[in-house]
Design brief:
Belongs to the IMPDH/GMPR family. GuaB1 subfamily. With 512 residues, this protein is of the alpha/beta class. The protein has helices spanning 92-100, 113-124, 142-148, 183-186, 200-209, 230-238, 261-271, 286-296, 312-321, 338-342, 348-361, 375-383, 393-396, 423-429, 435-441, 462-480, 485-491, 499-504; strands spanning 2-11, 18-27, 36-37, 52-54, 81-83, 104-107, 134-136, 157-161, 164-169, 194-195, 214-218, 224-229, 252-255, 276-279, 304-309, 325-328, 365-369, 388-391, 406-407, 413-417, 451-454, 493-496. 31% of the residues lie in helices and 20% in strands. The structure holds NADPH dihydro-nicotinamide-adenine-dinucleotide phosphate (NDP), the ligand Nc1nc2c(ncn2[C@@H]2O[C@H](COP(=O)(O)O)[C@@H](O)[C@H]2O)c(=O)[nH]1 and potassium ion.
Length: 512
């Protein structure tokens, strides 16, 4: 939808006097009514992110830091990033870390309900500023430390005695000694500690002055309560955590459409999820509609997300059945083979464009789910009208995803990812079924079971990736002359490019 101001001049023929009146008109026109195409050239075919670009507009936004990235869909995110409900991607460390920076993670439907409830409680007990430390005792070994270090990006184990920090061990301290060496022998004991509740900027300054990369955070009794790095302190001044009404970090969870949907939904709502996702491959099916009605009948006090669909009819039916937010995307996912197996799906930019227009018309929202590989894709999804953007596989290759870090023959670090409709996921999901049922369900594989998602040595943490996405997005908004995401969607001007046009935009690490 666009708002056009029409000025009407009325002239009295008898007196020759004229008067002007202006009125605002809301303009709707399918299919691309909600975004402007460059020179009004609307292509006759569907597009994905790589097919399109944005041109800059005259801008009055003086700084990229003036852009407000808060979303408007009731999800409570202060940056438009949602971590996909994939077993290889969204666990409790991911949920904590992303919510602290303003996003939200969706715990997958394949995790047992009582475990999800524990994760929710755990995330809600996390601090809004400092990170959860990795702790070991002085008699634990270098081997123990090396196993735990890749779990968190701060790259340090705090050695604790009676709850108080007595040393810090980093990966460098573990080099050149055997794995059974006790931590007391390698830890650094020159500790700077920071008091709980310290202002992040002051924490940054103290760390800088003391030439420390990080410091344990302690309470009034000197007991360890967290860890803060210089980068963490800086980020705490730039991001706003996504919090619930009680000021606790937000977290979401997903359910499927099979089994006792109402029971599962009630369990998760009682466990305190801030948002419930009802998720299946083919979201525009009657089983989904009845699942949604069952969830709506519980009168949930949190937004209900449902998907996936790629057409306006899909949006309409899911909204009618009770969805507040509709998840858009069939086949763009990095782990997804649906389009190759079935020929079904839709290029994601056009899918988001059409579905977002329909959701807006109904006073609802969409999330763009899948196919995000660069920060530009996030910007384009939002320009197309998405309220939030869901990212899976890209985040699998980070310290915070649940998998273990492996090294390839060249020593490069990676984690394994897999699709939620892959044989691997289906095997896990159907573990309690009869062998016959399992064999039957295994036939319908629509995802890959193993993919190597490399950790970027420059950006190994999900927070590093968020930094680059948010930097790209802030910049995109100022290029468009937008102070917030709504203005960004209204002002974005989209052009269509050839593959050569896309390739031209890539950096060139060596000469041609
Ligand atoms: N966004 C995407 O492109 C896709 C996403 N996924 C993800 O994989 C996960 C698992 O989803 P899903 O496979 O739906 O498993 P679910 O466990 O959610 O079951 C899907 C249900 O829908 C029925 N169904 C009917 N038609 C279809 C269809 N075309 N594809 C799949 N199920 C169908 C199935 O019955 P029956 O088995 O008897 O046919 C089953 O009862 C979800 O997280 C989903 O997001 C999966 C594929 C595509
Ligand atoms: N067709 C399939 N789609 C899948 C599968 N597992 C996940 N997904 C979808 O992908 C997105 C995430 O996309 P990504 O590009 O960021 O990885 C996720 O939210 C699902 O909608 C699958 O096995 N098959
Ligand atoms: K794909």
């Amino acid at each position: 939808m666009r708002i056009a101001t029409v000025v009407v001049t009325i002239r009295d023929r008898r007196t020759g006097r004229s008067a002007a009146a202006s009125l605002d008109m809301r303009i709707f026109a399918y299919p691309f009514d909600n975004v402007r195409f460059l020179n009004n050239q609307v292509p006759p075919y569907d597009l994905t992110y790589s097919d399109v670009f944005m041109v800059p507009n005259r801008s009055a936004v003086g700084s990229r830091l003036d852009v407000d990235l808060t979303t408007r869909d009731g999800s409570g995110t202060t940056i438009p990033i949602v971590v996909a409900n994939m077993t290889a991607v969204a666990g409790r460390r991911m949920a904590e870390t992303v919510a602290r920076r303003g996003g939200i993670a969706v715990i997958p439907q394949d995790i047992p309900l009582d475990v999800v409830a524990d994760v929710v409680q755990w995330v809600k007990s996390r601090h809004l500023v400092h990170d959860t430390p990795i702790t070991l005792g002085p008699t634990d070994t270098v081997g123990d430390a090396l196993n735990l270090l890749p779990k968190r990006a701060h790259n340090a184990v705090i050695v604790v005695e009676a709850g108080r920090p007595i040393g810090v061990v980093t990966e460098a301290d573990c080099q050149g000694v055997d794995r059974f060496t006790q931590l007391a022998q390698v830890m650094s004991t020159e500790l700077l500690t920071l008091p709980d509740g310290i202002d992040p900027q002051e924490a940054f300054d103290r760390l800088h002055e003391g030439r420390h990369r990080l410091a344990p955070v302690v309470d009034g009794d000197g007991r360890l309560v967290g860890i803060l790095t210089r980068t963490g302190a800086l980020r705490a001044t730039l991001y706003q955590p996504a919090v619930d009404a009680a000021g606790k970090l937000r977290v979401a969870a997903a359910i499927g459409i099979n089994g006792d949907v109402a029971h599962k939904a009630k369990y998760l709502l009682d466990a305190g999820v801030d948002l419930l996702v009802v998720d299946t491959a083919h979201g525009h099916q009657e089983k989904m509609i009845s699942a949604l009605r069952a969830v709506r009948a519980l009168d949930p006090q949190v937004p209900i997300v449902a998907g996936n669909v790629v057409t306006r009819e899909g949006v309409r039916d899911l909204v009618e059945a009770g969805a507040d937010i509709v998840k858009v995307g069939v086949g763009p996912g990095a782990m997804c083979t649906t389009r190759m197996m079935t020929g079904v799906g839709r290029p994601q930019f056009s899918a988001v464009l059409e579905c977002a227009a329909e959701a807006r018309r109904l006073g609802k929202h969409v999330w763009a789910d899948g196919g995000i590989r660069h920060p530009r894709d996030v910007a384009l999804a939002l320009a197309a009208g998405a309220a939030n953007v869901m990212i899976g596989s890209w985040f699998a290759g980070t310290y915070e995803s649940p998998g273990d870090v492996h090294r390839d023959a060249d020593g490069r670090q990676y984690k394994e990812s897999f699709g939620m409709a892959s044989a691997r996921a289906v095997q896990l999901r159907t573990a309690k079924d009869t062998p016959f049922e399992r064999a039957r369900k295994a036939l319908f594989e629509e995802g890959i079971s193993t993919a190597r998602m490399y950790l970027d040595p420059e950006r190994p943490s999900v927070e590093d990736l968020i930094d680059s996405i948010v930097a790209g997005l802030r910049s995109a908004c100022t290029y468009a002359g937008a102070r917030n995401l709504e203005e960004f969607h209204e002002r974005a001007v989209i052009g269509v490019q050839s593959l050569a046009g896309f390739t031209e935009g890539m950096p060139l690490p060596t000469s041609w």
